[in-house]
Design goal:
Helix content is 49%, strand content 12%. It has 283 residues and is α/β, with parallel strands linked by helices. It has 2 domains: 72 residues, lambda repressor-like DNA-binding domains (434 Repressor (Amino-terminal Domain)), CATH 1.10.260.40; 185 residues, Endonuclease, Chain A (2-Layer Sandwich). The N and C termini lie far apart (65 Å). This is XRE family transcriptional regulator. Pfam families: DUF5753.
């Protein structure tokens, strides 16, 4: 058996946190399997936390503190570790950006904007300037780069399975000029045709429907319980309560049933791109 690789706690705060977790666990004489027992998380999940490759969810931190009798240490450190991983993303989105890469399936509802991983640079810049008009060019460039790095979520063959529901108003109420809007919508069609995700359009005349609020994501994992994330302009909220997540999942099913079929939706996006390309606003 190959020798276990040591953790270099000087690399980052998450690595330091993970190294401390491993030390406390081993000092208590517990294996990874014994530590996650009763937590609903997999051994691989905890192992990645110890190596500084994954953030510790609050629910798991509380479980570890109780098991290892660490007096709330890991719970208290959770937010500090999350802040350390902030980078170019908004603080409340840091954990979500990481969860995207670990998810088995992602289901999302986007009532006002094209999802971040599908946004091209002109669209990203427009959204950033609208929400943060005083942002420097350096900050905008960093955020553009960070968002474009997430494009793999819908473009890489190894990306999670994704289902995206968009509101029709995103197509009818452009935030870019006609040429740029045409390019942006054509990009969505191109990526969708590569079978990386399935998209549906909720028509403007659909009437009352679930999720008449901000953007929402539902994440499913192989090694952790599912969770829901909703986002407003300057904040985001994560829900991991099993009962509530189940309710949101059922509501998302009803939303998909209300939307147009994937075939009709993709055709609508393509037609809108073509009309913008011809200098016309889609009817």
């Amino acid at each position: 058996m190959p020798a276990r690789k040591d953790i270099d706690g000087s690399v980052s705060i998450p690595a330091f946190y993970g190294k401390e977790l491993r030390w406390k666990r081993e000092a208590a004489g517990l294996t990874l399997q014994a530590t996650v027992k009763g937590s609903f998380y997999a051994v691989s999940y905890l192992s990645e936390i110890e190596r500084g490759q994954r953030l510790m969810p609050l629910r798991l931190a509380c479980h570890v503190d109780q098991l290892l009798k660490t007096d709330g240490y890991f719970e208290r450190c959770c937010k500090d570790v999350q802040k350390a991983r902030k980078g170019a993303h908004a603080g409340y989105f840091t954990e979500i950006a990481q969860l995207e890469g670990n998810a088995k399936e992602i289901e999302s509802w986007n009532p006002l904007l094209i999802p971040g991983p599908l946004q091209l640079e002109p669209y990203i810049r427009t959204v950033i300037r609208a929400s943060d008009p005083l942002a420097t060019e350096e900050l905008i460039a960093a955020r553009v780069s960070a968002r474009r790095e997430r494009s793999w979520i819908h473009e890489d063959p190894k990306s999670p399975e994704s289902w995206i529901v968009l509101h029709e108003s995103i197509l009818r109420q452009p935030i870019l000029g006609h040429d740029e809007m045409a390019e942006q919508l054509a990009h969505i069609v191109d990526v969708a045709q590569q079978r990386r995700f399935i998209t549906q359009i909720l028509p403007c005349n659909a009437g009352a429907h679930p999720f008449m609020m901000g953007a929402t994501w539902l994440f499913t994992f192989d090694d952790a319980p599912p969770l829901m994330y909703s986002e407003g302009m300057y904040s985001g909220q994560t829900v991991d309560d099993p009962g509530l997540v189940k309710d949101y999942a059922k509501a998302y099913g009803r939303l998909r049933a209300t939307a147009l079929s994937p075939e009709a939706s993709l055709k609508m996006i393509g037609q809108a791109a073509e009309e913008y390309g011809n200098g016309k606003r889609p009817r």
